[in-house]
Structures
1.
Amino acid sequence: DAKTTQPPSMDCAEGRAANLPCNHSTISGNEYVYWYRQIHSQGPQYIIHGLKNNETNEMASLIITEDRKSSTLILPHAPLRDTAVYYCIVTPRSGSARQLTFGSGTQLTVLP
Amino acid sequence: EAGVAQSPRYKIIEKRQSVAFWCNPISGHATLYWYQQILGQGPKLLIQFQNNGVVDDSQLPKDRFSAERLKGVDSTLKIQPAKLEDSAVYLCASSLISGRRNEQFFGPGTRLTVL
C-alpha cells in the first residue's frame, strides 16, 4: 500500500474550518484515500473516502488534487469535540474488505 | 444498531501470564480484524478473518499470540505468555465483505498493561 505523510499536530480555533493535509505521492491508480479519526480512548471512526473527485458528507469534505498526490480533509466550523487524531490512509478497494495501514496521523486540537 | 463489543475494557497482568480478549462484531459483518495500538502510534493489524477463516495473519506473533473465530461470529485473541512490550490497546473491528464505503467499525478496545 502507498505510504502517507501527515503533520504530527495542528491547532484550530473552535468554530473555524480545520484543513488537514496529507501527502500520498506514490498512490496507485486503483487506490482510494480514506480518512479516519480517533477520539481519545475510543476506536477509530470512518470519516470519508474518495478516489479522484472531491467528496462531501455530513462530517467533512475531502479535496484530492488532480494528480492525486495529495489531499486535504476539511472540517467546517470545527467544534471542540473534533479534537482527535486524524489518519489519512490509502488502500486498494475491490469487492472484498481491505486492510487499513495506519500511520501516526495528525493530532488536531480544537481550541476554545 | 449495536456496535462492536469488546471485553474486558482494561486488564493488568504480570509478564509471563496469559490473557484473553473477546470481541463481538456487528451482526452480519463477515470480516473481523484485530489491531494492536501501542501508545503514540496508529493501530497495527494483527489478524483478519473472513467468516471463520483467516485471511491474513502475517503480522501476528504466532509464538505467543493466537486468535480464533469459531462459527464466524465472536472472536477471541489470546496472549500466552505476555511480555512487557505487549502493553497496548487491542482493537477489534468488523466490516461487510463488500460495500460502497468499505468501512471498518471499531470497538472501544481493551487496554492491556503488562507489569
Note: Chain B touches chain A at residues 4, 30-31, 33, 40-45, 48, 50, 56, 91, 93, 95-98, 101-109 (CB under 8 Å).
2.
Amino acid sequence: DAKTTQPPSMDCAEGRAANLPCNHSTISGNEYVYWYRQIHSQGPQYIIHGLKNNETNEMASLIITEDRKSSTLILPHATLRDTAVYYCIVRAGWDDKIIFGKGTRLHILP
Amino acid sequence: NAGVMQNPRHLVRRRGQEARLRCSPMKGHSHVYWYRQLPEEGLKFMVYLQKENIIDESGMPKERFSAEFPKEGPSILRIQQVVRGDSAAYFCASSRAPENQPQHFGDGTRLSIL
C-alpha cells in the first residue's frame, strides 16, 4: 500500500501557482519524497525528489515540513499542459520499486 | 538524449497468443523496471532487472509472465497464452543505480486482447 495521502482532485487557474499537498506521517528517516505526474496516455514523468531540505528545479519546488510528515509540490505558473495526475511517493534510497497511490488529479482552468 | 524507448506502442493479440514487449533503457542506465496499469487503475510494480539478472519479481504473476534483460539488446517482457485480463498499459522505467535515483519511464505499450 502507498504510504502517502493526497486529495483526489484539485483545480487551479492558469497562470497561478498550483500547490499540491501530500501527507506521509509514517515516513522513515531513510525515505525520500518523490513526485511524479502522468499526463493522459503517457508514462509517468519524474518531477522532483527530496529528503528533508526544500528542493527546486526547472519544473517545480518541493517544500518538506520540518517533521517530514507532509510536503507540498509547487508548480509556480500552471499552464494547461500541467493537467495530469500527480503522485507523491515515499521511497527508501535502496528501494527498487515505486508504489503508486491514487494521486491527485490536477485540473488547470483556462 | 533519448529517453526510455518502448515498442510497440500498441499491440493487439488474440487470446492464446504470445505478446512480447520491448524496452530500451536510457543511455547509461543498467537497471530496468516493468509496471502494469490496468484500465482506470494505478501503476503496479512487476519486476526489476539488471543486466542478465532478475533482482525482484515480487509483482509478477506466477504463470505465463517472464522478463529478461540480456547483456546485449533491450529488456523483454513476455506474456504467453494471453487472456482478456492481460489488457493493460505496460510501462518500463530505467535508472542508474536504484539508490536514491529517480526512475525514468517510457510511454508504454498498450496491449489489447481480442
Note: The radius of gyration of chain B is 13 Å.
3.
Amino acid sequence: EVQLVESGGGLVQPGGSLRLSCAASGFTFSSYEMNWVRQAPGKGLEWVSYISSSGSTIYYADSVKGRFTISRDNAKNSLYLQMNSLRAEDTAVYYCAREQPAVRGVIITSYYFDYWGQGTLVTVSS
Amino acid sequence: DIQMTQSPSSLSASVGDRVTITCRASQSISSYLNWYQQKPGKAPKLLIYAASSLQSGVPSRFSGSGSGTDFTLTISSLQPEDFATYYCQQSYSTLPFTFGPGTKVDIK
C-alpha cells in the first residue's frame, strides 16, 4: 500500500525556519517525481515545489522561491522541504504528493498527483 | 502562468441529482487536466486525469470531458459521500501546475 506521511509542522515565529519531511512507503520512491502542495486555512490548493526522481531538476512557486528548498533522500525514501524566512502567509497545511505521467501509447497526455499525504500544519505567528 | 477558473464556485444539490462543474484554462492545455475531490480535514483525492480517464477505484458516476480550454466534471447521480470541494488542475508544459479555485458541493 502506498503511503506518504508528512511531519515537522508546528508553530514558528515570522522569520523563522522549519523543515518538513515526507516518509514514503509501498512503492519505489526513487522512481517517482514528487511535489509539495499547500492549503491556507479555508483556501484552495497551491502548488509549492517539484523535484525530479533523481533530484536533479527542481522548481518552485514564485511565492516561495529563494526561501524554500526541496530535497530528497532516495536511500531513506524521504522528501523534505526546508522553509526559511517564514511569513504569516506561509501558514497552511502542507501536503507531499506523488506525481505520475498519464501515458497513451508513447504519448504523455497529462501529469497528475495520484497519492497525497495527510498533511502537516505550519503556523507562522508571533 | 496558466490561470484556471471554475464555475460555479458553489452549488447546492440533492442526492440523485446530476451535477456538472466547469473548468476553464487561460490558454489551451490539450488534455492536461485533472480533477480532485477534497473533504474537510482530508487530503485531496484524484478522481479524473488527462481530462477523461477515471482513476482506479473511483466510482463510474464520475466522468470528465473536454480539451483545449474548456473542461467538465460530471457526477451522474450525486451520492451522500460526494458532498465535498472539487478542484481542477492543469499540468501542461512546465510548472507551476496550477489549481482552480474550487467548487463546493453541498446539500440542498
Note: Chain B touches chain A through 29 residues (CB under 8 Å).
